Amino acid sequence: MERRTRPFRLLGALGLLGSLLLSLGGPAAAAPPPSRPATGPGTNHATDDPFTADRTSWWRQDRFGMFIHFGAYSNLEGEYTRPDGTVCRDAEWIKRQCKIPGAEYEKQAATFNPADFDAEAIVKAAKAAGQRYIVITSKHHDGYAMWPTKQNRWNLRDHSAFDPHRDILSELKKATDAAGIKLGFYYSIWDWHDPDFADPATFPRYKKRMYGQLKELVDHYDPALLWFDGEWDADNPTNRWSRRDGADLQAYLHRLNPHLIVNNRVGKRGVTDGDFGTPEQEIPAQPVDGQLWESCMTLNDHWGFAKYDTHWKSPATVVRNLLDVASRGGNYLLNVGPDRRGRIPQPSVDRLRTTGAWLRAHGQGDAVYGAGYTGLVAEPSWGAVSRRGDTLYASVASWPASGAPLHLTAEAPFTITGAEVLGSGRPVEVTPSGDGYDLTPSGPAPDPLASVIRIGITPPKAAPAGNGTGLTVQSWANDSFTGPPAVTTVDPTVNKSYRFDGSPDPKIPAAHFSTRWTGSIQPRYDETYTLTTVSDDTVRVWIDGKPVIDHATPHEAAVDKATVSLKAGHRHRIRIDYTERGGEAHMKLLWSSPSQSQQIVPQRQLYAD
Q: What is the model's pTM?
């Protein structure tokens, strides 16, 4: 993982340009990137909508996972004694931060013997915590592989004191399958050990081995998820990974397994990279626009094991973080770092067990699993509110004094049909008040970590689902909508990721084209909708003839939003103008409202001219 918290944003133009200069798949050279192909094969890499796809359904429902940072660095347990006797402290970055010479780091790795690694015990700890998937480091930045790779000998089988007949990833796969838990692998792109990584002349050789290792992981262990890291621009050694590299790798992985879920660090953490964003050691203040997301956090101050680090998060912090994440529509990936013998520290186990006990008590896990952003109410100061269907779950971290109310601010009209505190059996008085409702529970808080009020609601009435077939789409072989369109058809949705190698049609060039969608959009609720576009290079959107989004200056992948009042069942006229000016090509149209969770506007609600 990183040495610092990085803002959850797109990389700037200069960083992207710099990384593009050295990245294009054959022998690399410090020269301008080649132009896009003269004609486009029509490849659209957006095969589904991660917000609604069956492929990502388990991940969206499970919400809570275990991260495991474990590797050759764990053998040092966070401390390195220099030749002069001074001690340097770090964890998974200890080789680089403590400037350990390569030969010395290899020498210590040869003594690494995690003989006490117990896959069944780890899975048991995850189950006890209520965690429904596990992501373990298969290779961190030090390049050390935690499985018997055939690509090199810098791995747990060939360079350690560990039993060469054991394979901890195979053991973990068997244990997770038996327990009904999904397994994923972390893989670092940045490699401090491979001599071919930093040299532009040899970087393609490194990529070939990397592809080979990833194919081994997919073929041998059938992971549900691949979690990349180490994609950022860096030196010591120089990191040459580019957006083009990420696009190529993502396409390759989906050819290996179309059901794989991949995080956005496969590219450059852009909104168009992978299936989900990865805010690190932070929780976004609201749902993330245009992309699923997962917040990864440590239980103390390090990802890998550090024997001196006793700064543990409290169980209350863990539970409340999980509730905040779920109420904003995200996932929570909580890390443990096994010691040199492969054992999860007892303070981690204790906190995991307490979290799981809270989730199991009184059905409180319903506030997390399968729940998400409500949209119907504003986030309160006293806790978090999530939604599952016609039920809201108000998780109260600051329980009110006797007789004092908890106020819910309504973002759209709805009716509360009843409320109860889970685990207490005590009534909750519900009173319309100002811009929403007051909830007045009786008695003390039933749970010191967080107490959950289950609220039955009658949501706003939805119009019947539409029967649309999509929007009329015209594309030109230029970026100015000049002359007759080269192709006219119907697109079921506006969900295009041509990346570097595609266009709307084989007759359209892969650079400098324009596309116009026209027709009608039909909402199911009388509400204020947020229309969200994800585009690269320009986009303009009109609703009922009124411009609502106008980002006509060429840009890298960007999110634009507009709020519009739409009438349920009414067909509102829509027009979208998009141009591709060079580089990547993306265009997506999403919507959300208090009653509609964020998604690509579906085909059934779109009508062609």
A: 0.94
